Amino acid sequence: MKEYPIEIETTHYVHRGGTKFYNITVIHNMQDDAVVVFRWGRVSQFGDVKVQIFKSLEEAERAATKKENEKIGRGYVQDGPMQKRTAEHRLELSRTIGLALFNKMGKTAVNHLDPGFDTSKMRDVDPPRFDEEGRPQEHIRKADISEQLRRLAEEERVEALKVYENNPLFGLF
């Protein structure tokens, strides 16, 4: 199987207010395996990332076009022409995509594009902290501390009883 060259196409959008951005990056190999990376946030920050994996370039382009139309309808405008880059071999892939974005893609997406790529030191992508409109995600995991609170209350009650045990007048009334 020949995966290379891998092509990367990035389109930048800026909100008409000028404080938010949205980037859509379509990455595909010669086998037409594709990954779409959506990145959004405040201008001058890296922002959050969402990665989708597709079996064909056509499906990936449909998803990218759908998101593009949605963003244009919400007040975003394209900021410059689409940037096209090509990674000719494995050694260029991370640098061509961009190191920060490459690391945020996660090992599943990288293995989808190039199954032979060494992803042993990579981890999978973290879920976004904010949705695409800037609202905090609702699925943030909260720790269940009810058992610890119950145990702490029991320990405090035992400590309080020890204070009374050392009192020579305790139990005389």
TrEMBL record:
The protein's name is: WGR domain-containing protein
In terms of Pfam families, this protein maps to:
WGR
The WGR domain sits at 1-89
Q: Where is this region: Disordered?
A: 113-135
Basic and acidic residues: compositionally biased ranges: 120-135
